Amino acid sequence: MLFLVPPSLPPLAPASQGIHGQAPTPKATPAKVAFDQAAIRLLEAYDAGRGIPPMPPLAKADQPAYRWLRACTLAKAGHPPENPFPAGPAREEAEAFRRLVALKPAEAVTHLPQLKTKELGTWMGLWRWGKSQARTGAWDLAQRRAWEDRLLAGKGLDLIQGYALRHALCFAIAEKDEQRLGALRSVIPEEQEELYTLAQALFGQLGHPLPVVRLWSLPGLRFADRPLGALGGNRVWIAPFEGALPRIPPGCTWVVPTLGGMADPADATLDEVSTVEARPVITALEKAFATAWLAPSRADFERMGLVHFPIFLRFDAEGRLLEVRMGDAAPKEPGF
């Protein structure tokens, strides 16, 4: 629709001019974000369990790679991520990955050595797809290790290699495989050295009682110093409270690590952060007439190598540690 300007009013300034003939202030164009920076933000959000961010203002040439990374991070089992590359080697790589994940798991693992992985999204897709196969028991031991080794031998982002290393270490401990643990030592990047050191410390605890730690009873919040193998029963489930009580079978004790508490192991009073975290757990336990233990000191658990939750521990009648299933190797529930 056209609007006529009455003769009594001055003519409108041209579009190139603002009020009083001044040039209008141009709209600010968002500064372009480097692909590496955007990728790290996305992976940090994934690692923290937050929502995956939308695509930031990237250079046009970087946009397909980010879309591929995002698609591989969000892809659901049985649904290969959409290929955003218009043409070229990147498109061929993405199509090869899509074909691989559409195969039966046992067949797919034989194609891993030939899979090109120049794109970060392919690394992320390979991690998430393989983790799902391992979790559902689709692979035997050799097949799972072939996937772990493919990730560890590549040149993906340190964070993704860290995932693969954690996965391999957790399963080596669960399977009590000292030879596998030693083999992993030769492929660990320098920046991941601490992960191996903690795993080695935990492996050395097998067959022995665990050290005494300070725990706080729930719901009573009274501290007690005792080893994890002397909490009653022969099993321990160490996992944060996630809004609902876990199903704890007879003979198993739930230990709740605080996520923000950094209490000194010798403290006779509970720190404020841990106290706040304990409140919803206490409310849930009281409603269910149940009990548990609170672990506010991260240092105690790090010294034992118990660092990837959830953690399932099994002890003999003398309190000696018989089994550790931690992190990626842990069951979904304790003892069911």
Description:
- The longest helix has 17 residues, at 120-136.
- The chain starts with 34 loop residues before the first helix and ends in a 10-residue tail after the last strand.
- By secondary structure, it is an alpha/beta fold.
- The protein is globular, with a radius of gyration of 27 Å.
- A seven-stranded mixed sheet has the order 2-1-5-4-3-6-7.
- The chain has eleven helices and seven strands.
- It has two domains: 35-203, no CATH class; 212-329, Glutaredoxin (3-Layer(aba) Sandwich).
The largest sheet, given as strand count, sense and whether it forms a barrel, is: 7 strands, mixed
Shape: globular
Runs in which pLDDT lies below 50 for 5 or more consecutive residues are 1-21
- Number of continuous helical runs: 11
Structural class: alpha/beta
Query: Which whole number gives the mean pLDDT?
Result: 89
Distance between termini? 71 Å
Neighbour order of strands in the largest sheet: 2-1-5-4-3-6-7
Question: Beta fraction of the residues?
Answer: 5-15%
* Gyration radius over CA: 27 Å
Kindly state the number of beta strands: 7
Helix content: 25-40%
Reading the helices and strands in chain order gives: HHHHHHHHHEEEEHEHEE
**Overall tally of domains:** 2
